[in-house]
Every structure is written in C-alpha cells, then in structure tokens.
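hi!! sorry for the late reply, been swamped w classes. u asked for the two structures so here they r. pasted raw, havent cleaned anything up. first the sequence of the first protein and right below it the tokens
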Amino acid sequence: MAFTERSAKARNAILEAAARRFAADGYDRTTIRAIARDAGVDASMVIRYFASKADLFYASAWTAAPARVDLPGSGDFAERYAEVFLEVWESSGSALVALLRAAPTRPEAVAQLQGVLDRQFLPVFHQEFPDRADIGQRAALILSQTLGLAYCRYLLRLEPLASMDRAQLQHAFTGTVRRYLEEPIAP
C-alpha cells in the first residue's frame, strides 16, 4: 500500500502510540480505541492501516525495535555489547518490552521475539567471532542473560536492579557476557 505524506504521518503516529501503549499496558489490556486516542486519529483509521490488533502489535514492535544492533569500535566485545544493550533498552526498549510482556502467553510473540534476536543480535556474534563453532550456543546463553536483565530491570522493575546506576550495571553485565564468551560451556 502506497502512502501519501499525510497518511504516512497518521500511520507513524499510530505505530508510535501502539508501541507506547503495548509496552505500558500489555497486549491484552491495550485497545484499538486507546491507541487511536493516543495517536489523535479515529479508531477506523487504525483498522484501515492495520487489519487487526495483532497486526498492529507486530508492526509496532518491529518498527520501534532497532533494525540491527551494531557494536561500534574495536576492543573488548563484552564491554561494547553491554554498553549497546543498555543504550538500546533505555532509548527504544518499549517495543521490546511489549514483546517480552506478550511472550509468556502468546506463541506468536515468541516467534516475533525470536525473529528480532535472529535478525538483530545473532549476526553481531557471528560477525565478531566467525571462526568459533560454538558461537551460536554462546550467543544464546548471553541472550538469555540479556533478556533476563531486561525483564527484571525494564519490565518488572525489580529493585535494586531497576534503580541501579547504569555504569555499575554495565560493568557487572560486561563480566557476565565475558564469562559466557570465555569459559568452557561443557565440563
């Protein structure tokens, strides 16, 4: 569907409102009317661009998430990963929060989250460590810790993790990433 400039603005406003609403209220409690109100459009306009609430959920999550995670610079991969992870979650994490919130009860959200990980995070590990046969397993372990940290800090807001100083958290998380990269997986 080709969009005029005006319809593109409306569509973008809907996507932004949806990402915020899904992150704040979760999938089940979010309504098309609430999203439309937040976007400043009529509810029929939301359905015009997105056939269903599910379609809007996935479009908003995919649009708001970073297209690909890049780890600029050189040097310690674990340090760069921890820094970028925290930056991504603190700047555009609402879409990812929405996926994490929906994943325990919606298999399609799990599939969407898997797609985000496969397209945005795993290529970074393969690019950084092209000769490591076990990098897929190591990346999966690191991603499990990444999602656990995100879930506890940004979704559940568990203390003291939620209010922990970012520099302190980054340092601690860097050590976790480094252990998964360097220590043997099997005894």
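now the second protein. again sequence first, tokens right under
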Amino acid sequence: MLDYDRFATEQGKVMQRTRQDAVDGLLPEERERLILERLRAQGRVLASELAAEFQTSEHTVRRHLRELADQGHCKRVYGGALLISPAGVDASVRMHEAVDRKACLAVVAASIVRPKQIILLDTGSTNVAIAAALPDNADLTVVTNSPEACARLLNRPGFDIILVGGRIARHAAGATGATALLQIQQIKADLCFLGACAFDPDEGVAAFDAEEAELKRAMVQASSQVAIAVTSEKLMTAAPFYVAPARAVDHLFVEADVTAARRAQLAAVCDNVMVARS
C-alpha cells in the first residue's frame, strides 16, 4: 500500500534539490564532474571550500561526495573526501608502470641503508626497485615477503636473505596470512621499507587488503625505523584498510614534482622528507 505522506515528503526533497541546483547555475552532473576533476588533481577536497567556490551549500557538496564515494572514486573523511589510490591493481601490472620513476626513488631510498643492518623489505614494485638499487657488498640481512625482491638480491655479494613464507597473495605478489605474520613478529629489524598503497598526512598509511594491512602493521612494530618511497599518484589518497599514522614514518621519499606546499604538509608529520631528483 502506498504511503502518501512518505511519497509527498520524498517528492518535496527532490523538488528542493532541483530548485537548489537551478539557483547554483550548474547542473548536478556538471558539478559532480568538476568535483571529481578536483579530486584527481589535488587528492583531497574540503566540502566547505567546494561549497564556497561553486556558490552552493555544503549539504549539496556532501551529497555529491557521497555519490562519488558510492561509485568508488573517493573515500569520505572528516570535512571532505580523499581520492581512492590507483594502486589497487595487481602487482603484475604495477611492476611495469613508472619504472624509471620508481628506480629514481629507489636510489635515494637505498642511500640511507648502513652496513650490518637488518632490513625488512615489504612487497611492492617500488620496493623491488629498492632491492635492485642496494649496492653489492652492502653487508646486510634482508628479510622480505616479496619473491620478486628476493630475486633481485640472489647471487649478489654482501646479502644474507631471509624469504618470509606463507600464502602468496596474487595482487601483492608476496607472502601474507598467519604464517607470514608469525615470522615477521619474530624479527627485530633496524629499518623497514614499507609498501604503501595510499599515504595522506591526516589519514596515514593504508592498504587494499585486510591481511596485507595486518602484516604491514606487524612490520612497523618489528622495526626501529620505517621508510616509505611513494610515487606522486599515491600521495593524498585513501585505501580501505588502515596501517599506521603518518607520524610512524621516519623517512619519506617523494618525487620531484611534489610541490613545496605539499612537501611542507608531509614534513609536518614525517621526520625526514627526501626528494628524488632525476
């Protein structure tokens, strides 16, 4: 049986939104497209700033952000939204993306390693590049859950390699699950190169898989220092599973195209922000 009072209320809301959109001077689809473009350009948007720019209400902007989040474009956060990280694709794809840029990051990241250290090396295409960038005769113990990283170190002098076992997650191309977690919890590392699917100064480090996020948290706990080398498209983005706060990162390596203003935001929460220049 039709609830006429509820129907009338809903129709009234629709008419109210239509009138508001007409006053705003932009069709809802146009405004939503502009918000998505802003998200892709900046990573983070604030509802109050968008409302002022589009001369509309924050309620209207939040409605657009909810719709974009439902479509998988962003994650709602306090006051606005973050772009979803593009790193959710399988590792087999990421290994062939931005190879030169990752190699540049890897050289700078490898420069902080010191002889005799125990290094925890997480999965990720940038971390595989770091494995390749470590110098021969480095006198390091490298503990990794990444078969790809292990392959870059085999038959090279100066490395004692420990490959963490367990179920291999295809999307991450590395060991995960209970077996890998137990092994990581028994390690005391000097330095961890942590793989980050997404990084934001306020939201911290995040991952796309729950088990992977749990293993990354264990790596942070097992290490005296944490380092992350991150390509620019992962900055100011979100992923579903929380790993650690940004302040847990001791060394952050970013690309040269990161603006001075954004570097200042990152430096406010990370002890050392280093720029990889080609």
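hope this helps!! also noticed smth abt the second:
The domain at 4-84 is CATH 1.10.10.10 (Arc Repressor Mutant, subunit A).
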